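in:
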């Protein structure tokens, strides 16, 4: 490559290089001015000295506005005081385009304004840091799965049926075949996949017509569903814990600088890398009532309950063995109490809420059939799913990780809309 990336400048100390990027900021003081350049891989300070460049180059400071695109030539020079430890002593600046007045100046703006300008907001430092953490989380998840014999198995996004209940389905007209629905989770298809490959996962966008206006809900988000044959409830939780701790370590290892940009409490993340806690739904309800919650015996945890539950816990908490009425049809009954299912939600600490939903699956044809009839499900659409219980059924389990929820927790951002490049919510479809 004929130019150098800012992230690699330390390999070029004392050498003349070319950098390509955008003007992040500039400051001047008489015979010297500073150019802050970002190139996507990092940010570096350029020093322009009146005595060392032509007048033409020196005067470019008046022309260069924030976000102007430029090519800079100069000498890389170690300087402990400058932000990345290196700076570039500028020899030449070639301007590709002088940016018009940039709507997002380096000052505070309202969130609606920033979301309307999301295509530009993405360039600011905090958003850049979050997206880099997202990248690490994505790859850490796939790396862990790859090391543990999970095979990628891409599930369809256009489906004739619901995975997670019919209330949050997006409908798409589908030629002469009636309506299709956008997938809420690839799980059901993965259950077919494991009968071929043993352990599989998918990782892609899923859709939920969520009417809720919370800081944790998107209508389009990314989910990693994993599914494994012969894995039962306890083992399922063990895999989830290992995966999440693997991700925490990846972020701590690769994104220190990004976490600092975000003012993330790094110690809090380090503390989360310890054995996770486990409590039954019943225990959680009893505990929450002592904390003042009015949660019912057969209720899902509300957002406030999730906060209360983890208030004094540094590590995530598995809430397991839920009343069957409030969980999906496919979850396996608990042998010790058939009113409960072997499902678990993983609740992140620091109020970040549910990051994983998973369960052991019902593998008995008759029990599953009865449950589907009781729920009045369209059996013909699910015959293939029932078939899996007819031809060599095995105990199996799986779970789904919400990528943005996990990124939100790792980055410590308050609202999920910042954990994805272009958020989709009930109130937002643009840009
Ligand atoms: O708990 P959920 O609904 O579980 C399933 O869909 C299972 N079929 C997964 C499986 O067993 N393979 O969703 C899984 C995770 C949640 O824990 C949460 O992290 C995330 O997906 N999630 C959302 N994230 C953002 N916006 C929403 N509207 C979300 N709904 C769920
Ligand atoms: Mg859930």
């Amino acid at each position: 490559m004929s130019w150098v990336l800012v992230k690699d400048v330390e390999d070029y100390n004392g050498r003349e290089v070319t950098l390509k990027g955008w003007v992040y900021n500039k400051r001047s003081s008489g015979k010297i001015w500073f150019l802050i350049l970002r190139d996507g891989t990092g940010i570096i300070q350029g020093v322009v000295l009146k005595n060392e460049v032509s007048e033409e180059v020196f005067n470019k400071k008046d022309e260069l506005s924030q976000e102007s695109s430029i090519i800079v030539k100069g000498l890389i020079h170690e300087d402990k005081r400058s932000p990345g430890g290196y700076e570039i002593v500028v020899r030449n600046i070639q301007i590709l385009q002088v940016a018009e007045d940039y709507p997002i100046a380096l000052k505070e703006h309202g969130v609606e304004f920033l979301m309307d300008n999301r295509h530009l907001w993405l360039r600011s430092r905090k958003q850049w840091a979050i997206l880099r953490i997202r990248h690490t989380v994505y790859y850490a998840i796939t790396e862990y799965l790859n090391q543990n014999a999970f095979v990628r198995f891409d599930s369809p996004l256009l489906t004739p049926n619901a995975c997670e209940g019919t209330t949050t389905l997006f409908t798409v007209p589908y030629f002469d075949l009636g309506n299709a629905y956008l997938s809420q989770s690839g799980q059901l298809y993965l259950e077919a996949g494991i009968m071929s490959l043993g352990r599989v996962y998918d990782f892609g966008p899923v859709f939920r017509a969520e009417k809720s206006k919370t800081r944790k809900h998107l209508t389009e988000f990314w989910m990693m569903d994993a599914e494994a044959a012969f894995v039962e409830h306890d083992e399922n939780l063990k895999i989830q814990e290992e995966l999440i701790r693997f991700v925490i370590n990846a972020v701590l290892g690769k994104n220190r600088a990004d976490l600092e940009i975000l003012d993330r409490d790094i110690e809090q993340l380090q503390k989360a890398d310890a054995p996770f806690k486990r409590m039954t739904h019943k225990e959680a309800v009893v505990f929450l009532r002592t904390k003042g919650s009015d949660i019912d015996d057969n209720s899902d945890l509300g957002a406030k309950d999730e906060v209360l539950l983890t208030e004094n816990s540094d590590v995530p908490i598995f809430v397991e063995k839920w009343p069957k009425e409030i969980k999906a049809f496919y979850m396996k009954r608990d042998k010790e109490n058939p009113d409960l299912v072997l499902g678990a939600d993983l609740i992140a600490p620091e109020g970040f809420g549910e990051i994983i939903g998973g369960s052991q699956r019902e593998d008995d044809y008759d029990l599953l059939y009865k449950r589907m009839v009781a729920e009045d499900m369209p059996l013909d659409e699910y015959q293939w799913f029932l078939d899996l219980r007819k031809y060599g059924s095995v105990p199996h389990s799986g779970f789904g990780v919400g990528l943005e929820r996990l990124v939100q927790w790792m980055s410590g951002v308050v609202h999920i809309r910042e954990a994805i490049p272009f958020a989709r919510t009930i109130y937002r479809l643009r840009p």
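note: Residues 345, 354, 357 surround magnesium ion (ligand 2) (CB under 6 Å).
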